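Dear support,

I submitted the protein below through the web form. The confirmation email said the job was done, but the results page showed an empty box. After a refresh the structure appeared. I'm attaching both so you can tell me whether what I see now is the final result or a partial one.
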Amino acid sequence: MNIKETFEKSETNLTQTVSNIFKTTADVDMKHEDIIAIHRIPSKKGTTRPILIKFKNNNAKSAIMKKRTPMITKVYKLVDDVTKRNQGLISRLLLHPDIKNAWFFQGSVFGQTNAEERIKFDTFDNINDTISDFRNRTRTF
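What the results page shows now:
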């Protein structure tokens, strides 16, 4: 997860600062043990350096991402980083003739078919096989 804030805080206690931001703006209680790694990443000179956070599990990240809207209205920007493999999968899905839309949500890639079916895809899936498997499972009662 990547947080872009409009002002720079000191580096000394970044975890406490971020926990306070989550508590005051999104009403999410983040424990110190939920965060594995946290640091600022370089940016252009004169701009605020974004904070990069790695969470212990997806539940902690999901709790924050669900409260994204109140944080955005209070000058913070949350970005869920998508891996190169997942970006490639989304690109492949969007080029596929049976897929109308594709997106990344809570660590997974989903595609919506022209028949309005929502299917979860993995990075190494054969798109045609995954679609046909999904259709076979939903039709079997």
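Response: this is the final, complete result; the empty box was a page-load delay. The beta strands are 2-5, 35-40, 51-55, 76-79, 99-105, 108-113, 118-121.
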